[in-house]
Amino acid sequence: MTHTAHAHHDAVLRARVALLGSQTLPARQEVAAYRVLAQVSPLAYLPLLTVALYEYSRQDFAHLPETALALRAEAVGAARRMYCLEPTRGPLLLTALDRYREQLVLSEPVQEELDALDREMAACAIGCR
To answer: pLDDT in tens for each of the 129 residues of the chain?
Structure first.
C-alpha cells in the first residue's frame, strides 16, 4: 500500500469514527466527514453531504453571503452527482437548487444565471434528468 492510499484509508476511517461517535458533531466537522466519505461511497453519502452543506451554510455562514453561496453551490453539485435512478435525487436536487437560488438572489445575481436555475428546477420538477 502506498503512502497516499494509507492516508486516504486513514481519512475514511477518521470520518467514519467521527460520524459514529456519541456526540453531535459541529456542522463543519460533519461536512468534512461527508466530503471524505462521498468519495468512497457516493450512493450513501452524497445525499447526506447535500443536506449537511446547506445546514453549514445556514448555521455558520449566514453573515458571509459569498461563502454561504459557495457552500450551497457545492450542495447542488453533490445532488447533481447522485445516481440518476436514486428515488430521492430529484426532490433533493430541486431543494438544493431552490436554496442556492435563494442565496443567489441576495448577492445581486445575473439574470441569465437565475433563468438557467429556473430552467433546471423546472426540469427537476418534471423528473430525473
So the answer is: 454 555 588 989 999 888 898 788 899 999 999 999 999 999 999 999 999 999 999 999 999 999 999 999 999 999 999 998 888 999 999 999 999 999 999 888 789 999 999 999 998 888 754
C-alpha 48/C-alpha 39 separation (Å) is 13
Q: Cβ contacts of residue 94 below 8 Å, gap of 6+?
A: 121, 124, 125
The answer to whether the beta carbons of residues 98 and 111 sit under 8 Å apart is: no
Residues 95, 78: Cα–Cα separation, whole Å: 12
pTM, rounded to two decimals: 0.88
Sign of CA dihedral 84, 88, 92, 94: positive
Q: In whole angstroms, what is the distance from residue 69 CA to residue 97 CA?
A: 11
